[in-house]
Write a structure and sequence with these properties.
Blueprint lengths: L1 E7 L13 H11 L5 E4 L4 E4 L2 H11 L9 E7 L2 E9 L13 E9 L3 E4 L1 H12 L4 E7 L6 H5 L3 E5 L13
Parallel strand pairs: 1-8, 1-9, 2-7, 6-8
Antiparallel strand pairs: 3-4, 4-5, 5-6
Length: 174
């Protein structure tokens, strides 16, 4: 069983704040400066599988890239409040892979705005690994926001930096 991650960059770095609101940019800065308003420990949380609508709303409200197309949607709840989400999908042809039954992409992971869930990513990934039939999990780290350190902490093996990719943005939705 393998865990892999790749780091990608976007060809035009000027697009860094185009998707999502300014709040996401400030949150990234707060994370780096350890100025998060609310800290929760994953051991105080329970895991539930999420409906599409619950996952969609949480990602649109809390993840820089918004909603995704995923097969498996896991959520961490603290006192019946959804505080963290991790999603998994099959491989993407657009990203150079293909969908296979036991190969998954960790598509999204995020916490509720202004909140950090200590151990949340580990707890959600461990749940996935224990409850689903998988042979390989891969993911990507966007170099505009991450050096991929969370993947190292989760036991993923770095494969390589991808070449710059191009993303198109519908400015009427910004």
């Amino acid at each position: 069983m393998r865990l892999h991650f790749l780091i990608y960059s976007v060809a035009n770095q000027k697009t860094a704040f185009i998707h999502g609101d300014k709040h996401h940019g400030f949150l990234r800065m707060f994370y780096k400066l350890n100025l998060i308003i609310r800290k929760i420990y994953a051991r105080e949380c329970t895991i539930k599988e999420l409906s599409y609508l619950d996952k969609q709303k949480f990602l649109n409200d809390n993840h820089l890239q918004g909603n995704d197309i995923s097969k498996i949607n896991l959520g961490l709840y603290h006192n019946d409040e959804l505080v963290s989400v991790m999603t998994f999908s099959g491989g993407s042809i657009a990203k150079g892979s293909k969908s296979q039954d036991s190969i998954y992409e960790l598509s999204r992971f995020c916490n509720l705005k202004d909140t950090v869930v200590i151990g949340g990513a580990s707890k959600l990934l461990t749940y996935f690994k224990k409850n689903y039939n998988w042979s390989s999990i891969f993911s990507y780290a966007d170099r505009r926001w991450s050096d991929g350190d969370v993947y190292n902490k989760l036991g993923f093996q770095f494969l390589y930096n991808t070449t710059p990719n191009y993303w198109y943005i519908n400015l009427s939705k910004v």
